[in-house]
């Protein structure tokens, strides 16, 4: 990986995690440019990076990019809905752009496809990503303990994390909940496990163990995000299956464990939910999300081929969030980022369904043709697991989507491959 790529990718990742929240983005002017859900500065940096990289190195048209059609279709769809929203709601183009600008980060798929074209470059990226995630996890674990034990706030954090953490409503084993960094930490865990299975040798064994241990502690005790806990269990289970087959080499072991996976996973998840999330407000949250899914899906044909579009939140709040008051007087509202892939459909409507279908079809086609299906299964935990509630099309997570698409490409074309017996053979 070239120095230019290292610098820009590192800077974009630091922006994604707000420099470990050492910069205050809660009340400063930066809040509207860079924060957990605001990615304007990140988009500017991404376009500067692409411009400089293309000027210096040009574009490699030989590199196979399986998701090219999907990415182009999605960006064209974005432009069509932007113009349709302007016409339908009478919004200005600029105001409408700032509602939906973050979708353009998907264009990073093209430069990342060229940068991450070898095992070595993936090793560099995973090293950068993992080190940042480790520091982030340690900062948040420390902060979580200090808030729950001493009531002291030492670092800045997103508004949502601040309210959740200081309310002390979700304290488990001495840790108060801070969910925002969970996306980054889980993806770091996923990349770490893939690097072990693909024999990239990014770290020493003790550092692998240390990093993975800290990530898991953060996800379970500090992040406390249901979907990521389930996905963490799944990727660790797949990793254990690989270890068993690598060291024992018996198909019967894999078959037996595979048969036991469903019942064991069911009881483990049920146990974790009862222990960690035995809080009535989390049940209410799930109920609200179910109602939100129903509301958004009922309006899929609101404007025939698209749904709500990029309606401004400050003007069309009732339409976007469907705010309502229950019989007790509690005010509830719906959000796109609470309902997974349905959030995309809520904006794109039937055009979104078409995009999702192409996305799904391309992915399944890659899996069928690939010789490294086991690695793809691990990547699919994030790809399909995010469809339920933590969509990669949300502004908080969209930076990870082009990275995931390139990862799947790299597994598909053999850049990353593995043998259950170790080494680099294909499975």
Give a structural overview.
By secondary structure, the chain is mainly α. 65% of the residues lie in helices and 2% in strands. The chain contains 17 helices and 4 strands. It has helices at residues 3-16, 18-21, 40-57, 68-89, 93-100, 109-115, 119-150, 159-167, 182-197, 205-223, 226-248, 251-276, 280-298, 317-321, 341-369, 373-385, 400-412; strands at 171-172, 175-176, 324-325, 331-332. Strand 1 (171-172) and strand 2 (175-176) form a beta hairpin. Helix 1 (3-16) runs antiparallel to helix 3, helix 9 packs antiparallel against helix 16 and helix 11 runs antiparallel to helix 12. Residues 422-427 have low confidence and may be disordered.
Helix-strand layout with pairing:
Blueprint: H1 3-16, H2 18-21, H3 40-57, H4 68-89, H5 93-100, H6 109-115, H7 119-150, H8 159-167, E1 171-172, E2 175-176, H9 182-197, H10 205-223, H11 226-248, H12 251-276, H13 280-298, H14 317-321, E3 324-325, E4 331-332, H15 341-369, H16 373-385, H17 400-412
Antiparallel strand pairs: 1-2, 3-4
Helix pairs in contact: 1-3, 1-7, 4-5, 4-15, 6-17, 7-9, 7-10, 9-10, 9-11, 9-16, 11-12, 11-16, 16-17
